[in-house]
Amino acid sequence: MYKDDYVPSPCNNNCLVDFRTKLCTGCFRTIEEIVGWINFSAAEKKQVLEKIQSRKELTPKHS
Asked: What mean pLDDT comes out for the span 14-22?
């Protein structure tokens, strides 16, 4: 089981940065969020996860 402060990475190994949005098309994080993830506190990681959810909701779906 994970420690209470463990927050799993949203990375899904589908890494490609969209230069228009500056977001990874796989996990919806910015480069800064991807690089900084390992050093972020659990609270910071949770904030990133909340941002990701908002970004997903705002991103048009492509068929």
From this structure: 94
For tokens 């463990």, name the residue.
6
Residue 58 has pLDDT above 80, yes or no: yes
Cα separation, 7 vs 42, in Å, equals 6
What residue type is assigned to position 39 of the chain? Answer: N
CA distance 58 to 63: 16
Predicted confidence at residue 1, as pLDDT, reads 45
Measure the CA–CA gap between 25 and 6, rounded to whole angstroms: 24
Taking 70 as the threshold, does the pLDDT of residue 25 lie above it? yes
Quote the tokens at residue 1: 């089981």
